[in-house]
Records
---
Amino acid sequence: MANPKIMASARTLTSEGLGERLGLFLLITPAILWLGLLVILPHVEIGILSLSQRIAARVYTIGFGNYFEFLSEPIYWHTFARTALLSILVTAITLVISFPVALYIAKFAVGKSKPILFLMCLIPFWASELVRTLGWMMLLREAGVVSFLLQWAGIAGKPVEMLYSDGSLVLGLVYGGMLFMIVPLTNALESLENAQIEAGYDLGGTNFTVLRKIIIPHAMPGIVAGAIIVFMLTVGNFVTPVMLGGKNGLWFTEQIYSQFITRFNWPQGSAFGFMLLLLSTGIVWLGLRLTGQGFSETLRRT
Amino acid sequence: MSDIADLSLIAVTKRFGGIAAVDAVDFEVAQGEFFSILGPSGCGKTTLMRMIAGFESPTSGDIRIRGVSMLAVPANKRPVNMVFQSLALFPMMSVGENIGYGLACAGVSGPEAAERIARILDRVGLSGFGPRAVTQLSGGQRQRVAIARCLVLEPTLVLLDEPLGALDLKLREHMKIELKQLQSAFNTTFMYITHDQSEALVMSDRVAVMNKGRFEQVGTPRELYHNPKTSFVAGFVGDANIWSGSAAGAIAGGTRLKLATGAEVTGMGTGIDDGVRAYLRPEAIALAGSLDELSALPNRFPGTVSTVLFDGAASTLVIDAAGFPPLRATLPQAGPLAGIEAGAAVAFGFTPEALKIFPA
């Protein structure tokens, strides 16, 4: 019998082995280019930029001054904490609203209604985020549809302004995040065998027991994946907070925007950008720890 | 044993659209009985079982457990537990948690639940398996967990929906015996549905043969095998040579039958008209080297062996004979003909009682 180790090492020296390596190299090149040019390089640049402090015109030193500035100015970290808390709230509301929708699509819809329902969730996303947000503005503004209906029904005596508040902001963000919650949830729930749900009832479970002990644990990877996506999108959202949020309802991305564009203070903007990255990474990590899910496990199962 | 049956169905009908999946089915299952419903796929047996479990409600009729109507009782309140075809063990729970789930639903927890879980695991031969993940178990062990999960709740009735279907042949043979033993050890009423006649015949006290939403016949496995009441039962339960022909008239001790292929034989049957079907079990055919040896049998014919199908104790011969379609006969491996080869001349015969004739 030939020694397989020798055979294997001999093969890498042949042209066939070289061809395999070249093939692998070509296959992973786009991924490496994408990661390198679009993810790592800009972040290295922003990281370096965030550490440079201006001490005089066109004179910079390296230091953590931009980060100290973030901590010493209450408006900055207030906005930061607000963005974090509201994003968690938005993620939670999105989950609560999307779960029954996903459960219905995955387990109760039969025949043709299933793809149709799925399509109905998808359709709004054919329009740009800007247009969708404008749609909400038409509904919620003082002279908008909801205000008119409330007056017509006699519930409100005068035009009601529902825009530019935290309420309208959360509403818009939840709406924007729902699809990204429904898709992974539906996927996760579809793989749940009907017999498992039936067994849950058969052994004496109530609706609540079956949901808590069988359906939710099974959907956990989908819940975590959806929550991560929605949270990331919400934290980094810019259009919706600008258009639907109130004047004193700043979103942290607006701070970054104003540093870069309004004030031309790129180092400060970069420091804020890094803080946002740390925030989302930290909260996602915490979320995974709290739910006992592994990151790679979640990615693998959805 | 009480006088009231554990389960009684009264004229239970289930229609889907215009089609009756279950059509006016009546039966009773006594306490401690192993009752099977045997039928081909699509015969309505699964619908029937789901109605008893409470996942479907009958269009009409009544389902009673120990005399109490279950129609208004939801699935999670019925004293009935089901072993699913896929077993439906909860993969995110350990073996102990799977068994404890039903107890927790019933409000049993803490040390009492732990003790009952340990006791049931011991009784199904899985002591100490409580902390294991269900994914670590073998097929047979998973089966036992699924049954333990039901039995721990001490239900009046356990429903089993072809739970052996996914197992390989050897394990299935083994589990048949094990299921029967578990059932008699717990003395719980089992209702088993299957399309596999061997499972039904081996395990059951009584079997109902179901076809097109109706019960064709209910009886002990022996009754079904030896005295089928309908053509369907005769063909579905056990192996048979099936011949079509026409009745040529009654004689003393039987009915004369002319086969479509030409031969005339004597069999037994009632309500026979022109078109009939006749069923003859392969093991009911006596084989001999010459016709003289079979002189006691009214039906005896010469033929030649066309194929020998050797399968140990289940070996059969395919015989060509004038006036008959190719005919299968069991070849006893202990008899004088054990070594017979294809092409050899052989005589075969059978009693009129062995040939069951039914209207086609």
Note: Confidence is low (pLDDT under 50) at residues 6-12 of chain A.
---
Amino acid sequence: MKIRQQLFQFLNLAFVLSSAFMAWKSLAVITNSKSPIVVVLSGSMEPAFQRGDILFLWNRDKMTNVGDVVVYEIAGKSIPIVHRVLREHHNAQGKQLLLTKGDNNAVDDLGLYAKRMQYLDQKKDTIGTVKGYLPKVGYVTILLTENVYFRFGLLGLMGLSSLFSKE
Amino acid sequence: MFNISNRFQYAANQALSSAIIISTFVIIASIAQLVVNNAWSLDTTSISNIKTQTSLKKSFNYGSLNRKPKENSRIQFDLVTDLRPLFNWNTKQVFVYLTAEYPGKKDGSSNKVTYWDKIIQSKDDAVLDLSRMKSKYSVWDVEESFREREAVLRLEWNIQPWIGPLLFGSTTANSTFTFAKIKEAKTP
């Protein structure tokens, strides 16, 4: 009887984890973005976005407008960057080149791109355009990744609660 | 039945659903207020007295590759606008930017560049009256030259909310100018 209960609990946990994973992946399919929800990590877009704010992305727009805030990732550099589009140049075939800049930065992003790279390719380099904003909530993930005490404290609490809980 | 984890789950659920209801209300009410204030058809803007200047730069930071001279354009303008209708209780900041749109070489190609922008954080600073303002950015094109094309200037805005969707719009004013020819070096 005991083992049946434990197996059931394990199944429940697996169900929770897999449904969270499915929700994330279906959101990625709907928005056509590999990471449809991002947490702001730097202050380069202050005062619009602060560290820990949550942004909702959409990546199905054919063209990006000047003034839009995009998230882009340069091949070879692992950190995605959230900056505003300063210029756009496009042709009839739908190829679009973008130059971006952080609101809080003095100069444009030429120095952040790869060597000798002058523009972003809208299709290739951008992960999505910022459509929605939720303040502060994402700070938990920053605490989890940057604060060792918080991470182990939370893990310990979860372990303790699973030890003492009886369903 | 009512152990700590149950109570915690119940409280967390309640907090989450209340938060969702409140933020939905905030978003809908603030957008409704913008519609009532005619935010998407602001006609109090004028852009005038535009002067343009084109020069050659050889730095990578000014669009040049291999130190090949690159045309850079700057403008000077007068701007009058009243952006107070964009501010309500869900406006964190308004980002205003002056864009120039001009055609490319082939049919269907187009370019849009920003000459100037400003972050406005309070309603008290939302009335702008700038004269002989210099462009904030030195602008270069994907092509070699601006070829004295005609560009349309527009004042556009982006409302950054405290919570909810980012909103974009443009004032009804527009104004045209022609990219200046490069000043020829004087022959000795």
Note: The first helix of chain B runs from residue 4 to 36.
